[in-house]
Amino acid sequence: MDIKRNDETPFSVELKFHVLVVGDPPVEHAVRMCFTKHFESIDLFCTDSGTTAFDSFSKKTPDLIVLDMESRRTHALKFLSAFFKSGEQCNIIAIAEKPSIEDVVKCVRMGVNEFIAANPNSQKLRECLSGFFLKWEKKKNGAIFQADQQNTFDLHNIISGCPQMQVVMDIVQKIIKRPVVTVLLQGETGTGKEVIARCLHYGTHKNETSPFVEVNCSAIPENLLEAELFGYEKGAFTDAKFSKKGLFELADGGTLFLDEIGDMHLLLQAKLLKAIEEKKIRRLGGLKDISVNTRIIAATNADLEKLVENSSFRKDLYYRLSVINIYLPLLQERGEDILELAKFFLEKHSATYALPVRKLSPAAEQFIQQYDWPGNVRELQYVIERVVVLGESTVIELAELKSALCIKEQDIQKQHKTANGWERAIGIPRGGLSLKDSEMYLIAEILKMTKGNKTHASKILGISRPRLNRKIEEYSISLG
Ligand SMILES: Nc1ncnc2c1ncn2[C@@H]1O[C@H](COP(=O)(O)OP(=O)(O)OP(=O)(O)O)[C@@H](O)[C@H]1O
Ligand SMILES: [Mg+2]
Q: How many angstroms separate the Cα of 446 from the Cα of each of 144, 302, 372, 426, 460?
């Protein structure tokens, strides 16, 4: 089975455990019997001649070879020496009921993994074969997971047609090609920070099983986070009964995704900065430094600049992290992408629940594009999922969408009332006012009212501070 990453680059995972038996039919039968529970995952090939066995390698290197050293001793030895000369690598088991010590030593020296001195129908062979099969199965499941993740987080599956997302994707593509040490992802909740972090990771580590280790800095108590990140040696503190690797070490060769970095304690921030700069960590209670080749991707929906101003986030760490600073736009700023995303989620959830894909009515489409989506892409995704699960008709009408969003008619009327109030407060000129100008005017007025206090102004305006900063820059509003 091929697990496709996209149309151009199939990422294939081998789904059969290939076993080669060099021996007589009774050994082949015994091996086959050991795999009765997993017969669908096994591809077994048997030969009684060393030469034929060796020829089969040009087609496929097996995952495991079983050598019958009892009845096919000469062939098995000939095969072994040819095999190791060829430079191929594979797990090999040799079996003989009463082997000579000389044969056992010879086989083990040549590189045979296990020599089983027992009858082919013995429990020993069953246990040994099942051990190799389980190891292979674990590896295969890991590879399937990796292929699946690579597919989900492939750049082609990220809806990013609007100009703001194009800016994001241009940076992403550049850092995939030139992996840099740190990336900072900023944006409000549900805008796709984690999606981008995973895209970066799977894009950089194509077709390899490098670890993506994720930690939410706000979910772990301060004192435990340090031990989680850096690990500890036995006896480092009362409960440290064993040594433990930290997440930095576990993410070696891959990515450590530090979510909600704004909530990390100042002392730990200093340790993190040191680890990033020196590419080394020291476990708690440890005496030696451990080199780590781990890329840090940090994410936050907090206003880091403000945290720096308040001295609750280290300036030096902020500068270190924001060498590559990616800002994820709000869903309401993404123009045509909003509808694209809605359709994408419609197809995705319909497929998950094995339901036909329903269409959005023109009014529902218009509403999706105009609604402000405070929970961003995540909220849109959940609403569409609710509609897919609960709806029945072929067309999704506006009322159904609103009910999935739990919007009541009174709320909409309330919004209208407030709008009328603003009309008077702003004082619309006779010739009218464009939406853009009114936004600029409103922001400037609120800033005047708050005497340039951006935090206060962003609260009144109901937007985040980073968003207010971008608007101030966009409209060149002076704070003086
Ligand atoms: N451009 C996109 N294309 C497709 N799906 C997306 C996109 N952006 C986000 N999503 C989906 O939206 C959901 C929320 O994204 P994600 O978890 O990355 O947000 P976040 O910014 O990390 O949010 P939070 O700050 O709350 O942790 C996910 O289910 C993700 O699959
Ligand atoms: Mg997140």
A: 54, 22, 21, 11, 8
Residue with token string 């890329």: 295
Rounded average pLDDT over 424-436: 66
Is the distance from CB of 446 to CB of 460 less than 8 angstroms?
Answer: yes
The residue whose CA is least distant from atom 4 of ligand 1 is 158
Which residue, by CA, sits nearest to atom 26 of ligand 1?
189
Residues 6+ apart with CB under 8 A from 174: none
Q: What is the pLDDT of residue 422?
A: 47
281 Cα to the center of ligand 2, angstroms: 26
Beta strands in 279-407 (DSSP E): 280-281, 290-291, 295-300, 325-327, 359-360, 395-396
Reported as a pLDDT band with limits 50, 70 and 90, residue 147 is confident
Least confident of 122-136, 143-157, 371-385: 143-157
Domains, the chain, ordered by start: 2-147 (3.40.50.2300), 160-327 (3.40.50.300), 331-407 (1.10.8.60), 411-474 (1.10.10.60)
Taking the CA of residue 188 as reference, the ligand 1 atom at the shortest distance is 25
Q: Determine phi and psi for 247, rounding to 5 degrees.
A: -65, -30
CA trace torsion 450, 451, 452, 456 (10° rounding): -20
